[in-house]
Description:
Number of strands: 12
Structural class: alpha/beta
Radius of gyration: 16 Å
Shape: globular
Low-confidence stretches: none
Mean pLDDT: 96
Largest sheet: 5 strands, mixed
Amino acid sequence: MGFLDYLKRKEVEFTENKRLSELSSARIGGEGRLVVSPKCRGELITVLEYLDSHTVEYKVVGGCSNILFPDGKTDKIIVKTSGLADFSAKGAAVTAETGVSLSALSRSLARAGLSGLEELSGIPGTVGGATVGNAGAYGREIGELIEVAELYDREACRVITLSQADLGFGYRTSILKSGRFVLLSVRLKA
């Protein structure tokens, strides 16, 4: 069974021959052979397990606010995580999936009387992209707020949880840039 049949059987949304310029906030880029858009954590993990077990080349993206897709056609499969956009707050602990808009999260927390993300509210993109690049503004970086992250480990083909200390945050970097891990969610202190 091919990947498209697999996606159909698992009822995972996908688009063939997608103009990547329509995804990127920069509005540039050629055509992507396949863009897969999981809508929940389970779908994302299922897609990643298939791609990794079949050694298919892919790129995970979120809101595409900091991505410049190449011109021409790309055969690399694009896995778009912006559909994973659930978050919840219990006391001062906030759990957010990788596709949550950083600015929307900041606004929602402020309305709920929770603070901590104000400095990051103007940063475009998702929690996932912000975490990978340890996005920051006004002297605050998202890595300072993350307590733990739930990740898919591509080498071990399983879900793991890493603490803030294990995520290797530095100026505009984290261990997530290595490509070994795909962020599923984070728990933040607000």
